[in-house]
Design a protein that fits this description.
Number of helices of chain C: 7
Largest sheet of chain C: 4 strands, mixed
CATH architecture of the largest domain in chain B: 3-Layer(aba) Sandwich
CATH topology of the largest domain in chain C: Glutaredoxin
Chains: A alpha+beta (242), B alpha/beta (619), C alpha+beta (150)
Helix content of chain B: 25-40%
Order of helices and strands of chain C: HHHHEHHEEEH
Number of domains of chain B: 5
Helix content of chain C: 40-55%
Number of strands of chain B: 19
Structural class of chain C: alpha+beta
Strand content of chain C: 5-15%
Strand content of chain B: 5-15%
Largest sheet of chain B: 5 strands, mixed
Radius of gyration of chain B: 26 Å
Number of helices of chain B: 23
CATH class of the largest domain in chain C: Alpha Beta
Oligomer: heterotrimer
Shape of chain C: elongated
Structural class of chain B: alpha/beta
Chain lengths: 242, 619, 150
Amino acid sequence: MSELVNLTINGNKYTAEKGSMVLQVARDHGIKIPTLCNHEAIEPFGACRLCIVEATRENRTRIVTSCLYPVEEGLVVQTDSPRIIRNRKMLLDLLLARCSENKVIKELAAEYGVDKPSFREEYWEKHDCIVCGLCVRACEQVVGVSAISLVNRGVSKEPKPPFLEKAKACIGCGSCYYVCPTGAVKMEEKNGVRYIYNWKVEFKLKKCAKCGMYWAPEAQLEYIRKKWNLEPGFFDICPNCR
Amino acid sequence: MASKLKTAKALAALQKKLARERDAGRCRISICNGTACRPYGSNPVAEAFRAEIEKRGLADQVEFKITGCHGFCERGPIAIVEPGNVFYQRIAVSDVPEILDNTIQKKGPIERLLFKQEAGEPAVGRQNDIPFYTKQQRIVLGNNVRIDPASIEDYIAIGGYSALSIALFELQPDRIIQIVKDSGLRGRGGGGFPTGTKWETCRKAEGEIKYVIVNADEGDPGAYANEGLLTGNPHSVLEGLLIGAFAIGSHQGYIYVRNEYPLALKNITLAIEQAEALGLIGVNILGSGFDFSVRVNRGGGAFVCGESTALMASLEGKTGEPRAKYIHTVERGLWDRPSCLNNVETWANIPLIINNGAEWFSRIGAPGNSGTKIFSLTGKVNNTGLVEVPMGIKLRDIIFDIGGGIRGGKKFKAVQTGGPSGGCLPEKLLDSPVDFDSLIKAGSMMGSGGMIVMDEDNCMVDTARYFLTFLEEESCGKCVPCREGVKRMRQILTDITEGKGRESDLDLLTELSAHLKDSALCALGSSAPNPVLTTIQYFRDEYEAHIKDKKCPAGICKALIRFSIIDEKCPGCGRCVKPCPTQAITFMGKKKPVILDQSKCIKCRTCYDICKMGAVSIE
Amino acid sequence: MKDKVASIIKKYGSDSSQMVSILQDIQAEYNYLPRTALDKLSKKLDIPQSHVYSMATFFRAFSLKERGKHIVNVCQGTACHVRGADLILESLERQLGVERGQTTADRGFTLETVNCMGCCATGPVVKIDEEFFGHMTNDKVEPMLNKFKE
């Protein structure tokens, strides 16, 4: 499917493959659009709304999330119009009110001139999680174990292990930690054990038979070994020593 | 019951037979046992009729029907007697034998049970002469009175499923779609999108498998128009769905019914079973070669599932989270297949359009807004109930002519339409026509049919706070603008109602509103600002009173009001003393005013409601 | 319990897209969603536990906690609200000694709210089990509750 279309972004003309998303096309050409809930290995979600742009088609302009908006012939896109900037600012204002002490959010908000939330201080919250869903989506789409999910609805929605107990299906791979944009997933390794506190799990790490370094959770390696039908002892040597 | 109908002729023959039996010289008593009448005790009354008729062996003289909503919910329990179109209201179990005697012996109507607007006014004997009904045009809901929703025979007897027959055997799918387009029918769920165009796009969409869906997740609090229709005439919805499916090329339908409507669920499930038994749903319907099956799904208590993509997610077994609609659901919807979702009322209009023609339908209502709309008219009006009016009728006519004006002689303040996605309109807009476009222009919208009337005792700031509280609870939580923005708006509004409002709050509310309208993922979020924006626009003075003067003019916001006893009016009867939940009132003896201890008063209004002397004031 | 859950799943053709209906049948059977039933459901339909838990916590109809013998539903729809429904709710909270969403210590009553039951003409409305009480006022609350107390 390599049908090409012509579109305009910020006044400049580009060609792109039909069906690709505006965000991807913009990034391919070095145009910056901020995102929080987007990750190249994961299906776009459209939750954070940060990637919004103005898209004009047949004289009708809409605000759309560029991560999910497919390009079309004759599309005209504005990524930083005053209306878009205003909206991004308010978005970050809202996020800062929720995550008033989170470093990532504070820096991003400051970039848009939001130094403190517009709301009363007694209502400022101190979350790290912005409910972007990346941890849950990575676990489902990339890892395939769905150990965690977004629970509840509305203001109390957040990623949690089932029944708020230790996530039994977790293999300790840490994908959730690596994709989290705000550092809300707390993972650490101590004495040969990996802890992911959010999901109440801990994993014994495998020690390399050659160099003695702890390199990955035994449970994760066992999961991969079984899935790909590898022989026992396949992971006894760490990648560095191989 | 008859066996499967294998041809259109068989259906026509059955229809003739049932119509004959129906008109066979008996008088008919229809008692409303709809959901809205149940709190009035309609169930025992219906039971009493049934038992009495059986006991006295009157089945050959009286055709007795337990029906769905008659519309005039305020006056329930209701019975309508034919011949004569006699309307009996507020019936008690003890009235039943007299009504039966009176009807069989063809005596004049029982005067004390007839409608009177106020006590002492002349009675109106015929339903169609009652002011509540005269300005209505009950082409859709009117059939409720004529049929028992648990009887497919009743529906067929009054001509039901003949539109299906016409569609299957006399029209081609493209012709049906053209008829619906020409009729001007627009979606009755609130969006007002042209139905024929939606069907056409779905028909043309790529893919063999297509779905038709009935949205019966009427979640707007205060709207039960869909409920009355689905419960009272489920077959009208099924027939419309079948015709639509045939036109679009779909063979599988879903009916998504709100969990909070158990009676509607029961009736539509039974209706499907009966239709299947007669071969009107299933394989090779009436010998046409058209196959169709339908499944009923219950909601789980989530308002957001009324949004089409969230509804489809729920049908797929997922949580009801909406998705972007850059690719329309008619192209890629349920399970990524072309899906045509329409509201209950939209589907129910289809048989009428096929039977009577597009031209007939387009002449009802107003230009660009053909047909009627069913509203649940509630709140502070005298005549509450389900009303069906031609589009374009003035708000004033609905509220004052049909609704009988404001109860208790109070003054009209606002009318709320469109549920939490709509707005509150003030007195100066009462002459606005009720149609899709005019309501949007005024800052509100049609919604699924809720129309709540408010008076001088309702606080508009409290109303805005109420809607935002509702939306905060119902938000799915996926996108930042709605999840965080609605919460912040609700916090600001609560602060204002508690006397903690600031001058800058109105600007902040307006900014947040603009942001939600631009950036929210779905219509729940993007229309959440409407109650706030309309109340600020039309009732700014109330906001300013709360913010600047720390006063609630309507006497509702607890932090800003004070209950006190008007000594001159208090006769010392002590009626208010015991019911006070915090024992804040002290009895001082007869003929001496009671004393209210402010420190214990929780402003629950119990004393105010109970006092017959008007001796409690709220300031 | 295992058999009941199995038969409910069978009734819906082991179709996981009918999850909401399956959960409702389970709740109708046990008056709430027992943990063991949900574990059984996850296993039998081969769906992740995390998904079942998401569904159970997203939809307001479901309760993961045991509920009382009598379910008190206070309508908070707009029509009931403009006629003072929140004062009725407060009155019930006072008299039952619990907040909305909670169950009394003796497990006699669970107090819940619902957004519009379709009885707007008779608002404010309270439904206890299958019985409706319309035109509610504060002084009617106690006699209404007494009907259900043992």
